[in-house]
Design a protein that fits this description.
The protein contains five helices and no strands. The chain is mostly helical and 120 residues long. Helix 1 runs antiparallel to helix 2.
C-alpha cells in the first residue's frame, strides 16, 4: 500500500513537471505489481486525466503554455492516438514492453548526452 502511494505521488509530481510521470507509473505497475503492459497503460491513461487537468490549470495560471503551439500539437496527438490504438490491438504484451523499454532508453540517452538545458 505504501509503495502504491509513493508511485502515485511521484508519478504526479513528475507529470506536473512535464517529465512523463506516467512512465514511472507504468514501470511500477508492470515490474512490481506484475500487471500486463496493456492494463498498466490503460490505468496510466485514467491516472493521467485528472493529473493533466490540474497541471494544465496551474501552467495556464502561471502563463507557461503557448496556446497556439499547444493547439497544433493537440491535433497531431489526436491522429497519433487513433493510429496507436489501432496498433495496440495487434501487438502482444512482450512487444509492448520492448517498445516501451526502447522509448525510455532513447529518451534517457538523449537527455543525458544531448540535452543542452537552459540553466533553470
Amino acid at each position: 500500500m505504501i509503495l502504491d502511494i509513493i508511485a502515485g505521488v511521484v508519478s504526479g509530481i513528475l507529470g506536473a513537471m512535464g517529465f512523463g510521470g506516467g512512465g514511472i507509473l507504468i514501470l511500477y505497475l508492470t515490474l512490481y505489481k506484475d500487471m500486463p503492459q496493456i492494463t498498466s497503460q490503460g490505468i496510466n491513461l485514467i491516472f493521467f486525466i485528472p493529473s493533466a487537468i490540474l497541471a494544465i490549470i496551474l501552467h495556464i495560471k502561471n502563463k507557461l503554455i503557448d496556446k497556439k503551439t499547444a493547439l497544433i500539437y493537440i491535433g497531431y496527438g489526436l491522429i497519433g492516438v487513433v493510429l496507436g490504438f489501432l496498433l495496440l490491438n495487434r501487438l502482444e504484451d512482450r512487444t509492448l514492453r520492448i517498445i516501451f523499454a526502447v522509448m525510455l532508453i532513447a529518451v534517457g540517452v538523449k537527455e543525458l548526452f544531448f540535452s543542452k538545458g537552459n540553466g533553470n
